[in-house]
Design a protein that fits this description.
alpha+beta, Beta-Lactamase, single chain, globular, Roadblock/LAMTOR2_dom
Length: about 140
């Protein structure tokens, strides 16, 4: 797992403080393990990370059906009654996921997520794993 895990807390808090309506932020590995979180409880963050692994796989499968696509998921947005879910590729084998209420400024949130990924994307990576161990 990422060595600087504790250092992500302030960066995630900065995102939450800069955009009203954010309920939870999770950084996760491609295989669904939580790397860092802000807001919500740890169990909810773990469940969200696990669900995101399946969602990014599904999004990648859909992307392969789009002509000229590289097959890589860049961003998924889901709107439901009560709020939004955003997931963005955030580095090699890592993703940034945000749950937000319906009052969130959707454009501002996606822009700030993109800024965060650009700023620290090289640090938001998770090495591939085999049998639960980093390779």
């Amino acid at each position: 797992m990422i060595q600087q895990r504790a250092n992500f807390d302030w960066m995630l808090k900065e995102l939450a403080d800069g955009v009203g309506g954010i309920r939870q932020i999770v950084v996760l590995s491609a295989d669904g393990l939580r790397i860092a979180r802000h807001g919500g409880d740890p169990d909810a963050a773990d469940r969200l990370a696990a669900a995101c692994a399946g969602l990014q796989s599904l999004a990648g499968a859909v992307a392969t059906e789009i002509p000229d696509s590289d097959g890589q998921m860049r961003m998924v947005i889901i709107e439901v009654r009560g709020g939004f879910f955003y997931m963005m590729a955030a580095g090699a084998n890592a993703y940034l996921a945000v749950l937000a209420s319906e009052i969130v400024d959707a454009g501002l949130l996606s822009s700030r997520m993109r800024d965060l990924v650009v700023r620290i994307g090289a640090h938001l990576t998770s090495p591939p794993r085999r049998d639960g161990q980093a390779v």
